[in-house]
Amino acid sequence: MKSSKVILVLIDGLAWHVAEHAMGYLHALRENNQASVFKLQCELPSLSRPLYECILTGSKPVVSGIRNNQTVQLSTRESIFHLARKANLKTAAAAYHWISELYNRAPYDAVRDRFTHNESLAIQHGIFYHEDSYPDSHLLLDAEHLRNTYDPDFLFIHTMNVDDMGHRSGGDSAAYRNAARRVDTMLSHYLPAWQEQGYRVIITSDHGMNNDHSHGGLLPEEREVPLFLAGPGFNHQPNSFRLQQVLIRDLCALALGIPVNQNNELKSFLA
Ligand SMILES: [Zn+2]
C-alpha cells in the first residue's frame, strides 16, 4: 500500500437510488474493474452540515455537536484537513461556505473568505460559494484551478446542484436525476487526469432526498448514499467489510499515508 494524494468528491444530496443507475461513467469504471461502489447508510439526522462534519472528522452528529444546519461554529474535532496539516501535507477545497465555517473561520464572511490562501489555516487554499445554484461546472473549474496552482495533497470538491434540484423538484423527479447525470459526465472529463497525476479519488454523498423535496430522517431514499472508490490505488476485489460514513476520514488519511487507523479491514481497500 503506497501513500498518494487524495481527492474527495462530495456530491451533495445524491441518493443511492439515483447513484445506482444514473452515474453511467462511474459504473463503466466499475464494470471495467477500475472502480468499486458501496451503499452506505448516512448517519442521523440526514442533514448537510452535521454530515459534512461526520464525513470529514469521523464523528457522528450526536457526538460532534454539529446537530443541525443552523449550528454555525468551528468544528471541535480533528478533521482530515487538520490531520493532513499535521503531517505537513497541503490542503485545498472547492466547497460550500459551511466547510469554511467548520474548519477555517466562523461565521463565513464572503468578502474575506470566498478566496482563501493562508498557509496557517486547516484548509490552506479554498474557493467557497454560498448560492446553492452555483453551477457544478464552475465549481469543478474552481477545483481544477486549486489543483493546478497549488498541487494539494488533499483536495475536497463539493458540488451542490443535485441537492438543489432535489429541493426544487423532489427525489423522484427528472430534474433531480438529470442533475446527477450531469455531475457524472463532468467527472468523466476530469477523473482520468486526476488519476494520471497520482490522486486516489473517493466520491460520496452526505445524504439523499425524499419525495417531499427534503431530507433529515430515516427513509431509505434520504439515508442511503453511494461511496465510489476510483482508480488503481484501490483494491477492487469483493470485500465483505462494511464501510461506514464515519470511516471516510480515516480511509482518506490512510490513503495519504497518515497512520490514523490500524484497522486492517479498512486498509484492505487500498492497493
Ligand atoms: Zn439539502
Can you put this structure into words, describing what you see?
It is built from 13 helices and 8 strands. The chain is an alpha/beta fold. It has a single domain (5-267), classed as Alkaline Phosphatase, subunit A. Strand 4 and strand 5 form a beta hairpin. Residues 13, 48, 163, 167, 215 line the site of zinc ion.
Give a short overview.
The protein is an alpha/beta fold and 271 residues long.
What structural keywords apply?
alpha/beta, eight-stranded mixed sheet, 13 helices, 41% helix, binds zinc ion
List the helices and strands and how they pair.
Layout: E1 5-11, H1 16-22, H2 24-31, E2 35-41, H3 48-57, H4 61-64, H5 80-86, E3 91-96, H6 97-103, H7 110-113, E4 115-117, E5 125-129, H8 136-150, E6 154-159, H9 161-169, H10 174-196, E7 199-204, H11 220-223, E8 224-230, H12 248-256, H13 264-267
Parallel strand pairs: 1-6, 1-7, 3-5, 3-6
Antiparallel strand pairs: 2-8, 4-5, 7-8
Helix pairs in contact: 9-10
This protein binds zinc ion.
Zinc ion is lined by residues 13, 48, 163, 167, 215.
- Oligomer, anyone? single chain
What is the CATH fold-level name? Alkaline Phosphatase, subunit A
Q: The biggest beta sheet, please?
A: 8 strands, mixed
**Helical percent range?**
40-55%
Task: Identify the overall geometry.
Answer: globular
Count of folded domains: 1
> Radius of gyration in whole Å, from Cα?
17 Å
Supply the CATH superfamily name.
Answer: Alkaline Phosphatase, subunit A
What is the CA–CA distance across the termini? 5 Å
The fraction of residues in strands falls at 15-25%
Q: Which compounds are bound in this model?
A: zinc ion
Return the CATH class: Alpha Beta
User: Going across the major beta sheet, what is the strand order?
Assistant: 2-8-7-1-6-3-5-4
Low-confidence stretches: none
Identify the CATH architecture: 3-Layer(aba) Sandwich
Question: Helical element count?
Answer: 13
* Total number of beta strands: 8
Mean pLDDT: 97
Structural class: alpha/beta
